[in-house]
Design goal:
The complex is a heterotrimer of chains A (61), B (240) and C (393).
Chain A (H helix, E strand, L loop, with lengths): L2 H13 L2 H5 L39
Chain B lengths: L4 H21 L19 H10 L5 H4 L8 H13 L8 H18 L21 H4 L3 H10 L11 H7 L2 H14 L2 H11 L11 H12 L3 H14 L5
Helix pairs in contact in B: 1-2, 1-12, 2-4, 4-5, 7-9, 7-10, 9-10, 10-11, 10-12, 11-12
Chain C lengths: L2 H20 L5 H20 L21 H17 L5 H16 L4 H9 L5 H11 L5 H11 L2 H4 L5 H13 L8 H6 L14 H14 L11 H20 L3 H12 L8 H17 L34 H26 L22 H7 L16
Chain lengths: 61, 240, 393
């Protein structure tokens, strides 16, 4: 590292609030849940379900 | 997480140091990956600040048995960081405790049974900071602070902080669950390490699998990796 | 009595008091918060009850059951439990009885169940909805005879279902006195909760699975066979973490369900953190409940459509304006009322999670082992000690 850069870096480090780094606030939680992919069970284009039973269609009356 | 340029530089330096320690904990060789007799390269403020942030864990391989002793560079860094950043009287308890923990580690590795190569024993650090602020802390806050102070999670460590933690195993276990659900891998790893030194952890927690999961999800962060590896070593019964 | 006897008695009394104090209790202001949430939720549900009315499509071949029978059944279920867990002198008792009577009228006082059964004899949802009414004493003997005939077939018993759903059907059958020799322990062990999962694998879907397992085992907070000890221990340990992350993640509907589960965990197995977390949940739930009394289901999910102020149909049974808003919050609002009622009941009863009456022979609560329970304990393995030593190593 060139000495000029080094100097800049050291000046900057003095500016860092080290106490804040040593006593950090808790990170925000990330909430995202796993999903199931319904598409895996569907024949593409056909519209009918591959792995689920067909819906029965009772006759009227 | 938003970081200023300087803080990003510092975090990068901490990551570098943590990566060396994590590698040493796996038996990956000397923490700084430099030969012991290599001349010390000059350390700047960045190195010192990074050493202060990583704290006592910089010397962890020397504290735990069966891991390589700290190199001259680590020891020098740790000593100078300890001297350069004494906690001000108004410091937050975690700041005071992490400083005390660094002093404790220096005392350990430079003691008669210590593993440090450099001569000169570092005396015991001053009196323990106050730990009463954690006694009644809500369990999420307790876990967060303990994770920040994970370097103190060592077998046979006995100080006011570990005594508080030992009385609240279930709360720390719940904190681990919450941290994983929040995807806060650093907190989860630190809490996981504490649980390896706490009594009566419910076996239904599934801690070994939990540590694997934390490594899988957050192990790209060297500080997370360091805590997971430390937890596994301590959990496997390694002594100080 | 000697002085020493007096001292011994006093010590024993103090210990007993301490044991009770360690269990459920809540500061008066927390109690008031829970009560306010419940009153507001029940107020909204009462004013919007016309949205629960069964329309013409309830019997239609292409009718959407999830938009007709399901909400009505959920209303009946929640009100059936609250009517048992609320003292008769409480105005809210009259409120939930009114709602229950309204819902029962929607079914033609049970007659509609017969009609649905004729159309779909092997559907399980009519029985499950009917069971909610039956548990509150609203019964239709004709439908029960018909249901018993179908339920006696091997085909009915072999209906392929996920374990959690199957437990729901068994719970419904129990309500109307149908018994079957199903392997419930094995069934329970195959549910997420019954298998004692690592608690850090909790997510939204597993959360809903676990709450329903508990609802089925406890007959929706009224008693039932109850929780096997290992399962009760698991809940006592990990519910605080699950509850708080639901709240932090803005999953209000699931948070209410988990709070309802928490309220039913035997108090003797819980600790200060557990009780504090259950109490603390209510301030957060109260903070997101709208002025109308409705509770949003989840943060950010169609939030704009949820009726913040009020959605009142023009008249009973009128085509519902704000129907989509209703669909987005009726369930969470029901669950808020449900969980609040169970939480208050936990605090009112020094024994904690015990319903006031014994619902069925063979049922047990809070550590009274009976024959049926012993059989149920099997699925989750041997009794889990509260804590074991050793951590990972």
């Amino acid at each position: 590292m060139a000495s000029a850069e080094k100097t800049v870096e050291e000046v900057r480090i003095r500016d860092v609030d080290l106490e804040a780094v040593l006593d950090p606030a808790e990170a925000d939680g990330v909430y995202r849940d796993s999903r199931e992919c319904a598409a895996l069970a569907v024949v593409s284009g056909g519209g009918s379900a591959l792995l689920s039973p067909p819906t029965p269609r009772p006759k009227k009356g | 997480m938003k970081q200023s340029g300087t803080s990003a530089l510092l975090q990068g330096a901490v990551q570098d140091l943590a990566s060396g320690v994590a590698s040493a904990l796996r038996g990956g060789g000397h923490p700084s990956r430099e030969p012991l007799d290599a001349p010390l390269r000059p350390t700047g403020d960045l190195d010192l600040a990074a050493a202060r942030v990583l704290g006592a864990d910089l010397l962890l391989p020397g504290v735990l048995d069966h891991t390589p002793p700290p190199g001259a560079r680590e020891l020098d860094l740790a000593r100078r960081a300890f001297d350069a950043y004494p906690p001000p009287a108004t410091a937050a308890p975690t700041v005071a405790w992490s400083h005390w923990a660094l002093g404790r580690a220096l005392h350990r590795v430079t003691g008669p049974s210590g593993t440090a190569p450099a001569p000169g024993r570092v005396p015991e650090p001053g009196p323990e900071p106050d730990a009463s602020w954690l006694t009644g802390a809500p369990w999420p806050s307790l876990t967060h602070h303990l994770a920040v102070l994970a370097p103190l999670a060592l077998p046979v460590e006995d100080c006011a902080l570990t005594r508080v933690a030992r009385g609240r195993t279930l709360d720390v276990a719940r904190g681990f669950v919450r941290a994983v659900r929040r995807r806060d891998w650093y907190q989860a790893a630190g809490a996981g390490r504490w649980l390896t030194v706490l009594p009566d952890v419910p076996h239904t927690l599934g801690l070994p699998g939990g540590l694997d999961f934390v490594e899988l999800m957050g192990g790209g962060d060297s500080r997370v990796l360091l805590q997971v590896r430390a937890a596994r070593l301590i959990g496997s019964g390694v002594t100080v | 009595m000697t002085a020493a006897d007096v001292r011994r008695t006093a010590t024993a009394d103090a210990r007993e008091t301490a044991a009770v104090d360690k269990g459920p209790a809540a500061p008066p202001d927390v109690r008031r918060t829970v009560r306010a949430v419940q009153e507001a939720a029940l107020g909204w549900l009462s004013r919007n009850r016309a949205h629960f009315a069964l329309g013409d499509d309830a019997l239609a071949r292409d009718g959407r059951v999830d938009g007709s029978w399901k909400p009505l059944g959920e209303l009946a279920q929640v009100c059936a439990t609250l009517s048992v867990r609320t003292p008769a002198s409480d105005p809210l008792h009259a409120c939930v009885r009114d709602l229950l009577a309204f819902a029962w009228r929607q079914t033609g006082e049970g007659a509609l169940f017969l009609e649905v059964q004729r159309a779909e004899p092997f559907a399980t949802y009519p029985l499950e909805v009917y069971a909610a009414f039956a548990s509150a004493g609203l019964r239709h003997p004709g439908y029960e005879r018909a249901a018993a005939t179908v339920a006696a077939t091997r085909g009915w018993r072999l209906t392929e279902q996920l374990p959690t759903r199957r437990l729901g059907v068994l719970c419904a059958e129990r309500q109307i006195g149908l018994r079957r020799d199903d392997n419930e322990p094995e069934l329970l062990a195959r549910t997420w909760l019954g298998g004692l999962p690592e608690p850090w694998t909790f997510e939204r879907a597993s959360g809903y699975a676990l709450t329903h397992v508990v609802f089925h085992l406890t007959d929706w907070g009224r008693g039932g066979p109850g929780l096997p000890p290992a399962l009760a221990d698991h809940l006592a340990h990990w519910v605080p973490a699950w509850l708080v992350t639901c709240l932090e993640g803005g999953l209000w509907d699931l948070a209410c369900e988990v709070a309802a589960v928490a309220a039913g965990v035997p108090a003797a197995g819980t600790d200060a953190t557990f009780e504090a977390e259950l109490a603390g949940a209510w301030a957060r739930i109260a903070a997101v409940q709208f002025a109308s009394g409705a509770l949003p289901e989840e943060d950010g999910r169609f939030a704009a459509e949820v009726p913040r102020e009020e959605t009142v149909p023009r008249r009973d049974g009128a085509p519902a304006s704000g129907e989509s808003g209703f669909r987005l919050c009726y369930h969470s609002t029901l669950m808020a009322a449900f969980a609040a009622g169970l939480t208050l009941a936990r605090w009112d009863d020094p024994r904690g999670a015990q319903p006031p009456s014994s619902p069925a022979p063979g049922a047990h609560h809070g550590g009274m082992p009976l024959t049926h329970r012993a059989r149920r304990d099997a699925p989750v393995g041997t009794r889990t000690p509260h804590r074991t030593t050793g951590g990972t190593g």
